[in-house]
């Protein structure tokens, strides 16, 4: 079954673009996005873009349509059914997250809508809560549109980089280069994540919080970012890097 689905997407551009639109729609849809492994799915579709089987800009457009549809349907549901939603028992499981989202929207509506688009737990909730609060369309539309425009390529990017790396021609150094790329990508992700945790220290509480205290993050986050920058700069001098940049450039220019 999995092989059949992969064959369908790689052989049919229309189905592949529909898959991008569907994943971004479900990832943005109220509550559904909390259950969907959207990051993994988007990375898988991004690999098709990186390998040249789907064009970047058609995939970007399809993702934008799906993203906007999911957000605006969620916004409409929140506006229309705000009373029943407040009483719905299922939502009470996310009451703490809903309260934080509601407070953030009251305090900084535009910033919350824009940044919340890139944060997994709040992404499918913010449009719903904005509708429940009857946030005016003029305040919801601009940050929502900007967020959707940039969210799709950002979430496709890990898969794009992986797809391009797979297409690097086989050579004596290519195997080691692909592993180096993976290590650098992990170092960059870890450095950015540690800085995010540092910025959110005191606001985010989960199972990692006792280990990554504010005092530890004060030196760990800058160190992680320094290692990430150093690794990114160092790999630019690898002999296979010009080939990788050429293949990556084709994705953006085709």
UniProtKB/TrEMBL annotation:
Protein family according to the UniProt entry: Belongs to the DedA family.
Primary localization: membrane
Localization: Cell membrane
Protein's recorded name: DedA family protein
InterPro entries in the cross-refs: DedA-like (IPR032818), VTT_dom (IPR032816)
Topology term for the membrane: Multi-pass membrane protein
Signal peptide stretch: none
Entry superkingdom: Bacteria
Keyword Cell membrane: yes
Domain VTT: 36-159
UniProtKB keywords: Cell membrane, Membrane, Transmembrane, Transmembrane helix
TM region(s), chain numbering: 15-42, 54-75, 144-168, 180-199, 219-237
Keyword S-adenosyl-L-methionine (UniProt): no
């Amino acid at each position: 079954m999995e092989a059949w689905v992969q064959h369908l997407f790689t052989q049919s551009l229309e189905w592949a673009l529909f898959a991008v639109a569907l994943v971004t729609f479900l990832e943005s849809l109220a509550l559904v996005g909390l259950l969907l492994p959207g990051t993994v799915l988007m990375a898988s579709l991004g690999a098709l873009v990186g390998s040249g089987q789907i064009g970047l800009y058609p995939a970007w457009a399809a993702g934008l349509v799906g993203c906007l549809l999911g957000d605006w349907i969620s916004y409409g549901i929140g506006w229309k059914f705000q009373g029943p939603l407040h009483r719905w028992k299922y939502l009470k499981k996310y009451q703490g997250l809903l309260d934080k989202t509601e407070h953030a929207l009251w305090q900084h509506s535009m910033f919350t809508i824009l940044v919340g688009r890139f944060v997994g737990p709040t992404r499918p909730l913010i449009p719903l809560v904005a509708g429940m609060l009857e946030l005016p369309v003029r305040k919801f539309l601009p940050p929502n549109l900007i967020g959707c425009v940039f969210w799709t390529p950002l979430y496709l990017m890990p898969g794009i980089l992986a797809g391009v790396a797979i297409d690097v021609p086989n050579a004596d150094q290519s195997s080691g280069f692909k592993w180096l790329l993976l290590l650098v990508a992990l170092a960059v992700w870890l450095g950015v994540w540690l800085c995010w945790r540092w910025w959110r220290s005191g606001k985010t509480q989960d199972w990692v919080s006792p280990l990554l205290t504010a005092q530890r993050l004060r030196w760990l986050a800058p160190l992680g970012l320094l290692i990430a920058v150093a690794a990114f700069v160092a790999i630019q001098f690898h002999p296979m890097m010009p080939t990788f940049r050429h293949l990556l450039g084709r994705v953006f220019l085709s």
